[in-house]
Amino acid sequence: xxxxxxxxxxxxxxxxxxxxxxxxxxxxxxxxxxxxxxxxxxxxxxxxxxxxxxxxxxxxxxxxxxxxxxxxxxxxxxxxxxxxxxxxxxxxxxxxxxxxxxxxxxxxxxxxxxxxxxxxxxxxxxxxxxxxxxxxxxxxxxxxxxxxxxxxxxxxxxxxxxxxxxxxxxxxxxxxxxxxxxxxxxxxxxxxxxxxxxxxxxxxxxxxxxxxxxxxxxxxxxxxxxxxxxxxxxxxxxxxxxxxxxxxxxxxxxxxxxxxxxxxxxxxxxxxxxxxxxxxxxxxxxxxxxxxxxxxxxxxxxxxxxxxxxxxxxxx
Length: 316
Description:
With 316 residues, the protein is α+β, with helices and mostly antiparallel strands. The chain is built from 3 helices and 15 strands. The longest helix is centred in the middle third of the chain and has 51 residues, at 91-141.
């Protein structure tokens, strides 16, 4: 019993001494293990993003399908608004347009004929009106029969109906002419869609089809960057999301590099958190983290490439 008591006392002295030394060591180093880091204490926050035009990188899509017969511009070319990039085959559309355009002179002739028929119908109507007036005067003098007057009145009525019909034919011919014109406009537009053009001044980042290949309707045929300022679109972790404000200064660096390539200012802060979209590794990632999207306008740019992966160090 005496031996067991001595072992217990020794063990208590050893563990008690160790605890005291650890506590003293913590006190001597000046670190309080009860203090926990708070995001409110951060003076900088880093977000990962990429360089892109202010208007974004646009995927140009073909409005119609066809086979490429000519290429005017290539990857890396600067283009002006309305400049052609690709020409699709348009033989069928050209034939349709020419066929429609050829109908216009013939239809104009139909309008002219209908108008002449109206003029003749008006002359006939006026003649029959005068004949009826003379016959009615003679009838009052007893020099004409009632039957002849009635026949002339019926003839005048038919002349009036014929004039109305002739005027209607003119309107129908004119309406047909307008329809042919609209068909021609549609044909011209279809022809225009066969020419794939730049929507605005900018840079062709990439082009996908080649001469001889087929393009389906709404297929992407080029990636395009509009001319204008360059921005960095980045994502800030939800832990620091509420501390990022519009107007804060930011330094732009390549990922893993300490050299500042550009500086800028936060110009946009998303009003909500969302799932990561930039540089997401896999769709099946189970990490449930949210981010806040920001855009940083760049004031000084030393050779930042579009779509480059960068870090934004924001001063809070």
